[in-house]
Amino acid sequence: MKIPEILLIESEHKPGSLARILSVLGDAGLVVEHLAAVRREQGRTVWEITVDMDEEADWGVFDRVDALPNARVLGKSDRVFNRHRGGKIRTVSSQEIASQQILRDLYTPGVARVCLAIRDDPEKAWDFTNIGNTVAIVTDGSAVLGLGNIGPLPGLPVMEGKAALFATLAGISGVPILVDAKDPASIIETVVAIAPSFGAIQLEDIGAPACFQVESELTARLDKPVLHDDQHGTAVVTLAAVRNAGRISGQRLSQSLVGQVGLGAAGYGIARLLFARGASRILGADLDPSAVARFEELGGEASNLERIMAEAEIVIATTGVRGLIKPEMVRPGQVILALTNPDPEIEPATARDAGAVFAADGKSINNVLGFPGLFRGALDARARRFTDAMLLAAAEAIADTADESDLVPDALDLAVHQAVAEAVRAAAAD
Questions:
Q1: Which fold has domain 3-84?
Q2: Considering the entire predicted model, what is its pTM?
Q3: Alpha-carbon torsion 278, 279, 284, 289, what sign?
């Protein structure tokens, strides 16, 4: 796992001083991401240098910097932890409460009239509360990223990140909900009990096979959209990437042999949506026999990693196993999407060097391209559930907004999320 470290290093302000520091960092296998002079006084400069550290990095590099003439390490900090300090979200009022009259209108006694109006017509909650703009982000922490079952509280930073992205990219209030439960039934009953507070439910980082039961029962019991992002959000963005890879390489999905390595929540969801979009053959591999059986019920063919790498034109991996795909397995002309986060099954650059025509990982083929617009469109349409038509429309919108040479667009481009929302809203209305 790459760890961004911010180093504060003081050096003499002379030619060659910074070069010697950078040479030491490079010899230790560190990649400099950012460099800035933060202070200069009395012939000395303090440099802020951001580097990527990983498990293989030589942590003795700090001693070697200190050993340089006229240079010393003043300190270091972790950029990621710094950005998380104090949390990433907060609740703010949409109204400025600047007078007693506004206070009485927003709270007592005025709010009673609004309560009674909603009692008489529950649909008015969509007009006079934030319910139509609020999504519950629910997790039990059983399948967090590629980290596994780490529990709900350690999963909270992911849920806060989702909420921050909802707010920034789609203007949605996302509320993290941590469920400390060990069985699907408890998760289901908890979500059913709190569902009146929300316009939609996003299930996140709930492991297979429990996630399938949770999603299915909640969809049946709740009169509002429920989406398991690890399944459907990932599938939407992956389909967009596959469509554009085919457009650029000339490989049509309906005519290509697809290999799905890993058949958990993400892998199953991807395979299901690829079939819905017209895929004719998908080979699938997983160590869990029950996962393979579910995949075969979709129409997939049970296989193994070696055969998939030898035969498939498009390979999609969601295993959670870093470095599973070796460079020698890659065939010229393959499209390889190694989607496990934080560390992929094969680094994209390594796959391309080995002959892949396109290769990407979960940093670029990321469900952040999908879920904000998916929920924005569903909420705007007041949809009661997500349908395949809505998911396929979202994938097409993502694919259409990418540049001609790219598999997917920039996730921070607000126009992308607006396009997805509009496509989903239109599909929900059909």
A1: Alpha-Beta Plaits (3.30.70)
A2: 0.84
A3: positive
